[in-house]
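Quiz preparation item.
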């Protein structure tokens, strides 16, 4: 099969976060004999075409000089549009360049697979012109503004198959509009990159570690983890809290920790390279994702960091919100807590830190769930089956 991927985000270099799950899926399918060609935005100092581990990658330039291409990557298209008038100015050129590059490749493709709604718009145009089936992956359903609502209402009902990353995303969409066919297919995880911690050489360390990872944004709820620290430290005074990620909340977290007198127990790592994530997950005794709903009503769509932690055998404490409930089974592979409740969050962290056998039992249950539900080869086979159905 020859599949064309349309995406606004794709890794630019080794260790890049941008669209890494799109790359991982494409790589797994290529390893299984599927031919994948990717169309993605260009950025400065990148090749316009390259072979990325068997993935035929094409990048379209949409502005000159290339250093002034402001729409894609960085903080992401929505944020870039808010911050830069030049990014807004580049929208027509971006869409035209994307369409032309996609058209040249899609002529030889059997299925067009668009990741996110914006490429879905172009994918639908190409699918209708070239009479190809269209698959759209919806990684988050949040139709903001009139243009956003129009895109969702026009693209999704006409797509041949919709892949939702979680039951939450699917439910939100189907409450809003109807689609032809859909299924829940989360991003997959390469288990070779995330070893089970008990299979690694054990280091003697009396310091218990609580780890959290994500963009330092209010919706990630890191402030509630910081507010849970005093209660945890009363019981486990040697515990260290480690948060990885970048974002505007950094100073607020440090200020709150200083105010609570726990700053010396808090370590902010900044950006964590992709290749270092498994190490931090394995070293952690507990992983925390304390997300809270956005003011718009939107929630955490899935929480892949939870899947990564569980793959390493690390039990999780996470908010009972959005797609997180697809990942964490309460009292089985971790605990679910009320969003924004620092007291309940602290209680569950304490419970896990206090009981090593519980941590190991929940960690093993988490690994087993990841192997059955989120392993990359499992996800790739599901997606390949959908492509096959659409080609017959």
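Solution:
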């Amino acid at each position: 099969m020859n599949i064309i991927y349309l995406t606004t985000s794709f890794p630019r270099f080794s260790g890049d976060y941008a669209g890494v799950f799109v790359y991982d899926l494409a790589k797994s399918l290529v390893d299984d004999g599927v031919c994948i060609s990717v169309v993605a935005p260009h950025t400065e100092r990148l090749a316009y075409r390259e072979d990325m581990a068997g993935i035929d990658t094409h990048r379209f330039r949409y502005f000159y000089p290339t250093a002034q291409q402001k729409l894609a990557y960085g903080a992401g298209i929505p944020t870039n549009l808010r911050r830069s008038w030049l990014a807004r100015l580049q929208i027509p050129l971006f869409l035209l360049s994307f369409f032309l590059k996609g058209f040249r490749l899609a002529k030889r493709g059997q299925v067009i697979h668009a990741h996110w709604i914006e490429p879905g718009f172009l994918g639908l145009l190409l699918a209708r012109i070239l009479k190809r089936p269209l698959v759209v992956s919806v990684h988050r359903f949040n139709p903001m503004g009139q243009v956003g609502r129009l895109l969702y209402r026009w693209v999704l009902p006409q797509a041949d198959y919709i892949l939702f990353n979680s039951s939450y995303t699917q439910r939100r969409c189907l409450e809003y509009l109807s689609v032809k066919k859909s299924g829940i297919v989360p991003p997959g995880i390469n288990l070779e990159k995330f070893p089970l911690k008990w299979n690694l050489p054990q280091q003697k360390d009396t310091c218990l570690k609580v780890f959290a990872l994500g963009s330092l944004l209010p919706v990630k709820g890191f402030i509630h983890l910081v507010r849970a620290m005093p209660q945890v430290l009363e019981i486990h005074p040697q515990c260290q809290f480690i948060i990885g990620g970048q974002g505007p909340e950094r100073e607020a977290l440090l200020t709150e920790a200083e105010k609570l007198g726990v700053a010396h127990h808090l370590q902010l790592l900044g950006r964590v390279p992709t290749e270092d994530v498994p190490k931090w997950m394995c070293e952690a005794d507990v992983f925390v994702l304390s997300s809270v709903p956005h003011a718009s009503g939107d929630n955490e769509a899935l929480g892949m960091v939870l899947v990564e932690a569980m793959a390493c055998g690390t039990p999780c404490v996470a908010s009972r919100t959005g797609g997180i409930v697809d990942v964490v089974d309460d009292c089985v592979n971790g605990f679910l807590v009320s969003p924004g409740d620092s007291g309940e969050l602290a209680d569950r962290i304490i419970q896990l830190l206090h009981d090593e056998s519980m941590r190991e039992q929940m960690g093993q249950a988490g690994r087993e769930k990841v192997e059955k539900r989120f392993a990359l080869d499992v996800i790739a086979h599901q997606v390949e089956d959908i492509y096959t159905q659409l080609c017959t």
